[in-house]
Amino acid sequence: MQVVMNPKYPGLSVRVADEGFEAYVWGNDFSFEVSAYGVPQMGAQVEQWALEQVLPYRKCYGIDPQEFASYRGAVDSAVFMAYLDDRPVGHVVVSTNWNGFAHVDELAVVLPARRHGVAKALLDVAQFWSRKKNLPGIMLETQNNNLGACRLYERCGYVMGGIDHLRYRGIDPQTREVAIFWYRLFKSELEAA
């Protein structure tokens, strides 16, 4: 399966992940720079959040391809990879969550391929997968130090469903990292039609 997703970037395609997924993950940098923490507020757009500036640093969550080995080819989950001119540059891992929503377990784009529509193309494929399964929507989590991701989800029609200030305190009791839960609801689109 190959899907060309964005006429602005004609070399961009998304495919079901193949046996090259593990090598692709181990061979790429998915880190991002943090220069501020957002102070998320329910009902407020990301651009309206107050920012707490920090000394810039690189953040990487440590992607383990073995964690998702059982997802490939499963009925209730999938792994898709994005390619720019046949080079793997991003991936999305999606599954059916316990609450009936699709859950984006992971979305990552390699550093040089950012701002080329890759993340949006991957989210579009996750949405297509979710709709084919007749799920009511998609959910995912990101953090207040990944403001680029927060802006992306907002642009793609996701709404904030919750904020968890304690989620990462077990890892670091002093952390200012906050979990933000985003939802893309499908039912409301049908009711509005």
From TrEMBL:
Keywords: Acyltransferase, Transferase. Residues 41-187 form the N-acetyltransferase domain. InterPro entries: Acyl_CoA_acyltransferase, GNAT_dom, N-term/lysine_N-AcTrnsfr, Streptothricin_AcTrfase. It comes from the Bacteria. GO terms for molecular function: acyltransferase activity, transferring groups other than amino-acyl groups. It holds the Pfam family Acetyltransf_1. PROSITE patterns: GNAT. This is GNAT family N-acetyltransferase. It comes from Pseudomonas karstica.
